[in-house]
TrEMBL record, chain A:
GO terms for molecular function: 2 iron, 2 sulfur cluster binding; anaerobic carbon-monoxide dehydrogenase activity; metal ion binding. It is an enzyme of class 1 (oxidoreductase). The lineage of its organism: Bacteria, Bacillati, Actinomycetota, Actinomycetes, Pseudonocardiales. It comes from the Bacteria. This is Carbon-monoxide dehydrogenase small subunit. Signal peptide: none annotated. It holds the Pfam family Fer2_2. Residues 1-78 form the 2Fe-2S ferredoxin-type domain. Its EC number is 1.2.7.4. CDD domains: fer2. Keywords: 2Fe-2S, Iron, Iron-sulfur, Metal-binding, Oxidoreductase. InterPro entries: 2Fe-2S-bd (IPR002888), 2Fe-2S-bd_dom_sf (IPR036884), 2Fe-2S_ferredoxin-like_sf (IPR036010), 2Fe-2S_ferredoxin-type (IPR001041), 2Fe2S_fd_BS (IPR006058), Beta-grasp_dom_sf (IPR012675), Diverse_Oxidoreductases (IPR051452).
From TrEMBL, chain B:
GO terms for molecular function: iron ion binding; oxidoreductase activity. Residues 1-29 are annotated as: Disordered. It comes from the Bacteria. InterPro entries: Ald_Oxase/Xan_DH_a/b (IPR000674), Ald_Oxase/Xan_DH_a/b_sf (IPR036856), Ald_Oxase/xanthine_DH-like (IPR016208), AldOxase/xan_DH_MoCoBD1 (IPR008274), AldOxase/xan_DH_MoCoBD2 (IPR046867), AldOxase/xan_DH_Mopterin-bd_sf (IPR037165), Xanthine_dehydrogenase_dsu (IPR017609). SUPFAM superfamilies: CO dehydrogenase molybdoprotein N-domain-like (SSF54665), Molybdenum cofactor-binding domain (SSF56003). PANTHER family: XANTHINE DEHYDROGENASE (PTHR11908), XANTHINE DEHYDROGENASE SUBUNIT D-RELATED (PTHR11908:SF157). Residues 31-137 form the Aldehyde oxidase/xanthine dehydrogenase a/b hammerhead domain. Residues 1-18 have a biased composition (Polar residues). This is Xanthine dehydrogenase D subunit.
Length: 153, 761
């Protein structure tokens, strides 16, 4: 089948999509956007988090066909040219990135949190990021990064 | 950060050793532009899939691939007969088939591989392969494998290694004796980036493989043997690695993808999904441990006797090294005059086990630290006091006879932990701070707080006489009017931040800000494995040594150009200077067209094998120490645990990059927390029951408490910059500290990790 969607502000089309493919597969393998990650492909890790019509979603749980006509924003669409989004910059500065496999999903989830709650408490950050697994950092520096991004906005 | 020895800096510049500059790959990682092994793409590439055994132990009686081959879009279906070279591989012993031939020894063992033009086509074709099996009785208990009357799974029997350690009296008498049987469940590394890679045939019978691994050269050796090719024909490049923690030390898809690429003449990509990942890599050895500790009435250790069984599963992997660690470190960081330890690593039909962060030391620590708490109780001492009375220190002789010849600040770690502030009592008003969280399982009723302590010890680098080295090439030249250095090694960056540290070392030694770390590949000599907390030590050591050679050559070049002697010159932040006359010239001007290019193979001081009868020998290069204090709130009615705080003190010798050091301590402690209260691969008759992140739980941000961290820098005079490997020690003491805290809260014995709710209620 064919899927038409808007990704990071650009109209895109994917052809020969098999019905069983996920939005994550289409982004990664058909549209050249492998930034969203594939750590579990079963909705448990959040590494594939993207905005779907402005609401964060696990792209691995969205069937490609469900994305027809909709708007997707991925981690590749957060920076403004060379200027990183404050969330991205804070992740680098705080040491919240080790292997970085969780990072794209966490950056999108934290970006969404800060739109809703510009100055979140530790407890609020923990609840908001509870669906994003990280195996490397123990999360402490991710909390630091979100706080400092909140300060920078 | 507590610094007792100042870092030795030779060419002052910003962002050198001891600072925390941004990692060079950080920006690409936050932008989603860093290419992990599962992100690779090639024109015209195929997708591979692996058919795995559904049985833990069976004889293969037939394989029919015809239906799979007939599927449109399928380019190859390969079985063991298609392996051109040796159909065996393995880290220590080549005992594992590339593709099963006569017998399968674990559920999940690869039997056939498929390449097709779409991953789903490959999966569907794979399911059409017909394999017939005669099921055999699986061996699933490690003690049975050693002592029982069970099938021999490999020629030579089921014992991969038995390591005895004997010291002092073997039948000592003690006033107070405590015993216990402890179990550690099978933990998974659960790195987030799945096993994956891309193999590209070169059109001349060779292959280029882009893969996430921990040790390019040991992969290459095994692939070459299986493919019947030369190392020149099999070139590996490190693709982006999404975490490792030991789980990538063994091969997964490397040989399979290369085989498929050579047979089809097309690039082949393989990516495991999460379930397959549980079958696709080795895990932490489950352990059963019998300990007896004897002490004087005032709590001084007289003896430790232990039998430790480590279940290596179907193939050896690094079981030998894991046994060596558990045996030599089996009494923990304590001075014990009489020791009798026997440690066995076995073959069974359980999933293969091998390296995971702290391997061998993690299991033993749960045993000996549980025992120390029991002994404290029996002697009427506090948990910290019993540990202080027996704490080893510099100069202590290990049970192997090896004298610890650098800092071993065990008592100081405990003192500092005790000095840290304790968390406030939990508020019952905020559900989020209670066990069970917003599930609303308690408002504070039945919730009891407990505090626990633990200390751990780990050997750093490869031990027991292994020829452990790393190779580094450092090149200095002027580029675009600036001095610039490129560094080449084959050391795997797996997320820990080695790439940052190598840049820092160059800045410190050469005073050059612009440092490029080249992609890691097999065009240079081996760097050894990214494991055993060894890369800062080994590849850091190699890069430093190469930089010093470059500096030597540069200074003599400069001496000629400036009409000075080499001895009076030094580098100072991108300038050449002499003590008498200060700055003489800019480095870039002195360099001119010259280029300095040095390659060094660097070794740590040699170690010795253990005596096979007594376990005597100077087996280890360096020891690392960390200690934790855990505070938990336990809902004693439901058995739910909330870790409220987890504080850590660790000696790192020298923090080359303080931010990365703290990151290692936080991440390592989190993995220890996982083992304490949630993480276990549950097997039944050799079959994994929970191969998914739905059923295998790792700590989330809700599970991980805030940490107070104190980093000591007591330099090891034998190590580059005095550093001590950082990665593993925090994983070791975290688990027993948390379990001790749960015991303190509940009064339960808790002889097994992970602790489950039904152990508590
Ligand atoms: S890959 Fe989508 S939630 Fe894990
Ligand atoms: S940085 Fe590796 S999983 Fe989060």
């Amino acid at each position: 089948m064919r899927v038409n969607l808007t990704v990071n502000g650009e109209r895109r089309r994917a052809d020969d999509v098999w019905e069983g493919e996920s939005l994550l597969y289409v982004l990664r393998e058909r549209l050249g956007l492998p930034g969203s990650k594939n750590a579990c492909e079963q909705g448990e890790c959040g590494s594939c988090t993207v905005y779907l019509d402005d609401v964060p979603a696990c792209a691995c749980l969205v069937a490609a066909g469900q994305a027809e006509g909709r708007e997707v924003r991925t981690v590749e669409g957060l920076a403004d040219g060379d200027a990183l989004d404050p969330v991205q910059q804070s992740f680098v500065d705080a040491g919240a990135v080790q292997c970085g496999f969780c990072t794209p999903g966490l950056v999108v989830a934290a970006h969404d949190l800060l739109r809703r709650e510009p100055d979140p408490s530790d407890e609020e950050i923990r609840e908001a990021l509870a669906g994003n697994l990280c195996r490397c950092t123990g999360y402490e520096k991710i909390l630091d990064a979100v706080h400092s991004a909140a300060g920078a906005r | 950060m507590t610094s007792t020895v100042a870092g030795r800096t030779t060419a002052a510049t910003a962002n050198g050793v001891g600072s925390s500059p941004a990692r060079p790959d950080g920006t690409r990682k936050v932008r989603g532009e860093f290419a992990y092994s599962s992100d690779l793409w090639h024109e015209d590439m195929l997708w591979g899939a692996t058919l795995r055994s559904p049985h833990p132990h069976a004889r293969i009686t037939g394989v029919d691939v015809s239906a799979a081959v007939a599927v449109p879009g399928v380019h190859a279906v390969l079985t063991h007969g298609d392996v051109p070279g040796l159909n065996r591989y393995g880290l220590e012993h080549p005992d594992q088939p590339v593709l099963a031939d006569d017998v399968v020894r674990y559920r999940g063992e690869p039997v056939a591989v498929v390449a097709a033009d779409h991953p789903e086509t490959a999966q569907r074709a794979m399911k059409l392969i017909e394999v017939t099996y005669d099921e055999l009785e699986p061996v699933t208990d490690a003690e049975d494998a050693v002592h029982g009357d069970v099938a021999e799974l490999h020629p030579g029997g089921n014992v991969v290694r038995h390591a005895p350690i004997r010291r002092g009296e073997q039948t000592p008498q003690a006033d107070v004796v405590v015993t216990g049987r402890y179990e550690v469940g099978m933990q998974d590394q659960a790195f987030l980036g799945p096993e994956s890679g891309l193999a590209v045939p070169d059109g001349h019978g060779g292959v280029d493989l882009y893969v996430a691994t921990q040790w390019l050269h040991v992969d290459q050796q095994q692939i070459v043997a299986a493919l019947g090719l030369t190392p020149e024909q099999v070139r590996l490049t490190l693709a982006g690695v999404g975490g490792a923690f030991g789980g990538r030390e063994d091969l997964s898809m490397q040989i399979h993808a290369s085989l498929l690429a050579l047979y089809t003449g097309k690039p082949v990509k393989m990516v495991y999904n999460r379930e397959e990942s549980f079958y696709g890599h080795v895990h932490r050895h489950p352990a059963t441990m019998y300990y007896e500790h004897g002490a004087t009435r005032d709590g001084r250790l007289v003896h430790v006797t232990a039998r430790i069984y480590l279940d290596g599963g179907a193939y050896a992997s690094s079981t030998g090294a894991v046994v060596g660690n558990a045996a030599t470190l089996g009494v923990g960081p304590y001075d014990v005059p009489n020791v009798s330890i026997d440690c066995w690593g076995t073959y069974t039909n359980n999933p293969p086990c091998g390296a995971m962060r702290g391997f061998g030391a993690v299991q033993a620590a749960f045993g000996y630290e549980s025992q120390m708490d029991k002994l404290a109780d029996a002697c009427g001492l506090s948990p910290t006091e019993i540990r202080r009375r027996n704490a080893m220190s510099e100069g202590t002789v290990m049970p192997t006879g090896q004298t610890v010849d650098s800092a071993a600040p065990v008592a100081e770690l405990l003192d500092r932990l005790e000095g840290m502030p304790l968390p406030q009592p939990g508020s019952t008003a905020d559900l989020r701070t209670l066990p069970g969280g917003v599930s609303n399982t308690t408002h504070g009723e039945g919730v009891v707080r407990g505090v626990g302590y633990a200390v751990g010890i780990k050997n750093i680098c490869f031990s027991e006489g292994f020829d452990d080295y790393s190779t580094a090439r450092v090149r200095l030249a002027a580029v675009g009017g600036q001095p610039a250095v490129t560094v080449q090694t084959a050391a795997a960056e797996v997320g820990q931040g080695l790439v940052t540290i190598l840049q820092q070392i160059i800045r410190t030694e050469l005073g050059v800000e612009q440092v490029t770390i080249l992609p890691m590949d097999t065009s240079i000599g081996s760097a050894g494995s990214t494991s055993a907390s060894r890369q800062s030590y080994m590849t850091g050591g190699a890069v430093r040594a190469a930089a010093l050679k470059v500096r030597g050559a540069l200074l003599s070049h400069a001496a000629t150009r400036l009409s000075r002697t080499t001895a009076e010159l030094h580098l100072d932040g991108g300038k050449l200077a002499s003590v008498a006359d200060g700055v003489l010239a800019d480095l870039v001007d002195v360099l001119g067209e010259a280029e300095f290019d040095e390659t060094v193979e660097w070794r740590h001081r040699p170690t010795e094998a253990l005596d096979p009868e007594t376990g005597r020998g100077n087996a280890h290069v360096q020891y690392g120490f960390a200690a934790h204090r855990a505070v938990v709130d336990v809902d004693t009615e439901l058995g739910l645990v909330k870790v409220v705080s987890l504080d850590c003190v660790q000696d790192v010798g020298k923090a080359l990059n303080p931010q990365a050091v703290v990151g290692q301590i936080q991440g390592g402690s989190a993995q220890g927390l996982g083992l304490a209260v949630m993480e276990e691969i549950q097997t039944e008759g050799g079959v994994i029951r929970n191969p998914s992140f739905t059923d295998y739980l790792i700590p989330t941000v809700l599970d991980m408490p805030p940490m107070n961290i104190d980093v000591l820098e007591l330099a090891d005079p034998h190590a580059p910059y005095g550093l001590r490997g950082v990665g593993e020690p925090p994983t070791i003491s975290s688990t027993p500290a948390i379990v001790a805290a749960i015991r303190a809260a509940t009064g339960k014995e808790l002889l097994r990790v992970p602790v489950r709710p039904d152990h508590i209620v």
